[in-house]
Amino acid sequence: MRRVLFKQWGIQVYSYPAMLYLGLVFGFVAGNYAANIAHLNSARVFLATLVLLIPALVGARLLFVLSHWQIYRNDPARIWRQSEGGAAMYGGVPLFLLVSLPLLLALQIPFGAFWDVSTFTILVAMMIARVGCLLNGCCSGRAWAGPLAIYLPNQLGIWQKRVPTQLLEIGLASVLLAGAVLLWGHLPFSGALFLYLMAGYGAGRFALEFTRENQARLVGNMTLHQAISVALVASSLTILLVAWPR
Q1: What's the pLDDT at 34?
Q2: Mean pLDDT in residue range 230-240
Q3: Taken in order 79, 80, 82, 85, is the CA torsion positive or negative?
Q4: What Å distances lie between residue 54 and 42, 100, 214, CA to CA?
Q5: Counting C-beta atoms within 10 Å of the first and last residue's C-beta, which end of the chain has fewer, N or C?
Q6: Which residues are paired to 4 by β-bridges?
Q7: What's the start-to-end Cα distance of the chain, in Å?
Q8: Rounded Cα distance, 109 and 142, in Å
Q9: Mean pLDDT of the chain
């Protein structure tokens, strides 16, 4: 666990916000590069992504807090404490999609093309941000003594051999990114690549939830994020099937 990445001139730089910042920087670079290849106005795409970042981060943090409410309910001051890390991508999805509708219309950016380009921004940012989770101890895997277990802490600083969930999610994002590169330009309509991301990540996240520690259960053994994953996969695949040219 390395919650403080380094200290310089009396200033502590925390791992999670530092990796989140780096992830966003490299994600923006990837998105800008993709926008140029797609012949979109990269300046407008950058502006739209920057504006949408605010609701995305707020929603992601709130969903993380909700899914770990047993920790935060007795200490609400910790909810916005950046040094603790923790952000759930699912929390950002509904907010940034909703806000993007009038924003993209005002900036005259095609809705589907923008979200196809944003696929690369999201995946690159996710891969680097999860390194911050690993260093911080948040989003930790459950205790496990299997052959691939790694001695890791959770958010409370308890060290055990665990499933390296954060590394598995980085692997999932890497596979999805490779798939997006291969599929881009070969799908029949704008927005299909983003739907691929939502369906692929939803399926992978559903499986990864079984490796996580202390997840609140909603129905039977299904967690909040698994319920969202099922809904996301179902809706994404439905839209793909309906919109796919016959």
Answers
A1: 96
A2: 94
A3: positive
A4: 19, 12, 28
A5: C
A6: 14
A7: 52
A8: 43
A9: 85
Q: What is the pTM of this model?
A: 0.87
Q: What angle do CA 227, 122, 184 make, to 5 degrees?
A: 100
In this structure, what are the phi and psi dihedrals at residue 45, rounded to the nearest 5 degrees?
-65, -40
SS3 state of residue 141: strand
- Residue 139 is predicted with a pLDDT of 78
As given in the structure block, the two tokens for residue 20 are: 């989140």
Please give the helix or strand (H or E) that residue 223 lies within, else none.
strand 222-223
178 CB-contact burial (10 Å; exposed 0-12 / middle 13-18 / buried 19+):
exposed
Q: Which candidate, 121, 226, 126, 225, places its Cα nearest to that of 170?
A: 126
CA-to-CA distance for 105 and 95, rounded, in angstroms? 16
**235: its two tokens:** 């809706």
Cα–Cα distances (Å) from 119 to 87, 190, 200, 232, in that order, read 18, 12, 12, 15
Looking only at the bridges linking them, the beta strands covering 217-219 and 222-223 are: antiparallel
Comparing C-alpha atoms, which of 64, 179, 169 is closest to residue 127? 169
Report pLDDT for 153: 80
